[in-house]
Write a structure and sequence with these properties.
65% helix; 144 residues; single chain; elongated
């Protein structure tokens, strides 16, 4: 059942396309949204990638206007990554489109089932967020 739900959510999310960002770029955008000012090495570690590959990925996001690089005030050799206003607007728009697709399905569900789903999703979100934040490296742990 869980696998079916995941697949159906992927179909709904696909209707709200993430273009022009690839799945890897989406991961970076979402990480920057939650860890503003993360450095390149920490981001690479979080992605289980190499700094050169992560740098190229960020180059494309900078070129698209979704990410900004800034020299760290503490160490000018360190580059900090920030989600730009355009990047934030892109994520906001994507969430709105995804919500619209999901809302169309939820409106067809019986009210009692929607309530049960909401309670389950709230518990899921709390647990997943705690796990993700517990496992994530902190922005100042390493330099790039």
């Amino acid at each position: 059942m869980t696998l079916t739900a995941v697949e159906l959510l992927e179909v709904l999310w696909g209707r709200a396309s993430t273009a022009p960002a690839s799945p890897s770029q989406m991961r970076v955008l979402l990480m920057l949204e939650h860890q503003d000012g993360i450095n390149l090495r920490t981001l690479a570690d979080s992605l289980a990638s190499t700094p050169p590959s992560t740098s190229r990925l960020c180059d494309r996001l900078v070129a698209a206007g979704f990410v900004e690089r800034a020299v760290s005030p503490a160490d000018r050799r360190e580059v900090r990554l920030h989600l730009s206003n355009r990047g934030r607007a892109f994520l906001d728009d994507l969430r709105a489109r995804r919500e619209k697709e999901l809302q169309a399905v939820l409106e067809q569900m019986p009210a009692v089932k929607r309530t049960a789903l909401l309670e389950g999703l709230e518990a899921f979100c709390d647990t997943a967020a705690a796990q993700i934040h517990h496992d994530a490296p902190r922005a100042g742990d390493r330099t790039a």
